[in-house]
Design goal:
A: globular; B: mainly alpha
């Protein structure tokens, strides 16, 4: 975990560049969604304050949860370096997860807080009064990190069968923008689509922690669902790893 | 001159053959890019189920703006989007090899790594623009046809200039590519919606300092013959070529300065 934190905090310039980019997108998203509160139509499930919290929390969380990227492990499988990883006296899935949590910790400090501060400075944001909600939000965000890791872990593992995972990886990137609630809150979709989306793991990456924070729906129900999804995707990843190990042939050297 | 062009044509042909040797994968990637571009249409459609106008514009006008933005960005991304790879080329030392070849650096960068799958994005951009223009209540006289064609090209040139100018930053800042995203991808996101919804600072920066307003907003206002809520005259949509020329001059100047100042790492 510490190694993960250290490795990523070496790139401070990159973090600054990323924060600026996320903030530009935050401003644009906030402007388009603010149009929901102008004119005669005021039928919205978020208040304007909740909406701006949603936008800036999303822009900050997306680099903590790591919606885009994170395909290095597939490269290690393709090149065969994975043999070394499996040979080490550790649980591979747990070790990679620990590194991921370290990375998320770094991202929380350098990539999450700055957009939040910008959001607070530029708009009126909804902040929960109850300190318990803040704690629940942190737990929810941690679960999101684990779910995101597990999903990418499985797609990475697919390299054992496919060698090149660009196809599944780009499909993942394609659907995640809409289904995680990054570009639009899930409640803006028609009812049937909402039911379908919440049945996939995607909204638990972003929409769930945001809804815990802005107190949209019961935080306990959201956390419970997140826990369930976490258990499923972690377990599925473990099963897949076991199957994958049998496919590995080390040819000496 | 003719020889140089033949070299470039040869490179392009080779890239096409590479793409065609993995036909299924290429088809998937093109479709993926095309669908990716269409997700924003879902966003616009869902927003307009709850609102009737956005910053004074109805859904047809917003779709037209999005169409211009997507088509122009798609074209620019296909032709010069590869400059994004600059940081990797600098780090690996490959750029040094490119600098000593008797070919222009920028054309080499653009052609050697051209990503033909981006055509998917361009195609869906053009499709959105076509559908939006067809649905809009426009009396299609020849000058309006000309305006659409002209603005698609000049908008792409403006985006290309933004790409080149923004990626030049990689010569100074090693991890600058993500910063460039703020004005390239950020630029197309900005240009997808009416200027009127943004606050003053963002609007000045992204619409006039970076000439994002001339990619989609003014062309749409002129095309639909709407009175501009921001009070500028109706012929502003025709300024595209002038703005594109100016952007190229500025981008060229920045690029030249950046390349002059570059020293190889010796790797």
């Amino acid at each position: 975990m510490r190694a993960g934190f250290r490795r990523y905090s070496a790139y401070r310039q990159a973090a600054l560049a990323g924060v600026i980019t996320n903030s530009v997108f935050g401003l644009i998203r906030a402007a388009t969604l603010a149009t929901l509160f102008t004119g005669a139509t005021r039928s919205s499930e978020y208040t304007p304050q909740q909406m701006s919290t949603y936008v800036w929390l999303g822009q900050g969380l997306l680099s903590v949860v790591l919606l885009w990227g994170g395909w290095d492990f597939a490269e290690r499988i393709r090149t065969g370096h994975v043999a070394v990883d499996l040979y080490r006296p550790w649980d591979l899935q747990a070790a990679l997860l620990a590194e991921e949590i370290g990375r998320a910790g770094y991202a929380l400090a350098l990539r999450f807080l700055p957009p939040m501060i910008i959001g607070l400075a530029l708009s009126e944001m909804y902040l929960p009064r109850d300190p318990l909600i803040w704690l629940l939000f942190l737990i929810s965000a941690l679960l999101s990190v684990v779910i995101s890791f597990s999903l990418r872990f499985m797609i990475n593992l697919a390299a054992f069968w496919l060698l090149d995972i660009r196809g599944p990886a780009s499909m993942y990137a394609l659907v995640s923008n809409l289904l995680t609630g990054l570009v639009l809150p899930i409640w803006m979709f028609p009812g049937w689509a909402q039911t379908a989306i919440w049945a996939t793991p995607f909204p638990y990456l972003l929409q769930a922690p945001i809804d815990v924070f802005v107190e949209h729906g019961s935080p306990w129900r959201l956390l419970g669902a997140q826990l369930l999804v976490t258990a499923i995707v972690l377990g599925a990843g473990r099963l897949m790893l076991r199957r994958a190990e049998h496919r590995l042939v080390v040819q000496g050297g | 001159m003719a020889d140089t062009l033949r070299v470039y044509a040869g490179i392009l042909h080779a890239r096409w053959r590479i793409a065609m040797s993995y036909r299924t994968s290429f088809a998937f990637e093109i479709t993926g890019q095309a669908i990716g571009q269409l997700t924003e249409v879902v966003v616009i459609a869902l927003l307009f189920t709850r609102i009737r106008s956005m910053g004074g514009f109805d859904v047809t006008a917003v779709l037209l703006m999005y169409g211009f933005s997507a088509a122009c960005f798609g074209l620019a991304d296909t032709v010069v989007g590869q400059v994004e790879k600059l940081p990797q080329l600098i780090r690996s030392g490959e750029l040094d090899a490119m600098l000593i070849r008797p070919l222009g650096l920028l054309p080499q960068l653009c052609l050697l790594d051209i990503q033909l799958r981006r055509l998917g994005r361009l195609l869906s951009g053009l499709l959105i623009l076509g559908v939006a223009a067809h649905r809009a209540p426009i009396d299609w006289t020849w000058d309006r046809f000309l305006l659409v064609g002209l603005c698609t090209v000049t908008g792409a040139v403006i985006f290309s200039a933004i790409f080149v100018a923004a990626c030049s930053i990689s010569f100074w800042v090693v991890e600058g590519s993500e910063l460039a995203n703020a004005v390239t991808y950020g630029g197309t996101a900005f240009a997808s919606y009416p200027l009127t919804i943004y606050d003053r600072i963002l609007r000045r920066l992204m619409a006039y300092v970076l000439p994002g307003a001339f990619i989609s907003y003014y062309p749409t206002v002129t095309l639909l013959g709407i009175r501009d809520p921001l009070g500028l005259p109706g012929w502003f949509g025709w300024l595209g070529p002038v703005v594109a020329l100016l952007s190229c001059l500025v981008a060229g100047l920045i690029w030249r300065t950046a390349v002059r100042r570059y020293r190889g790492t010796g790797s």
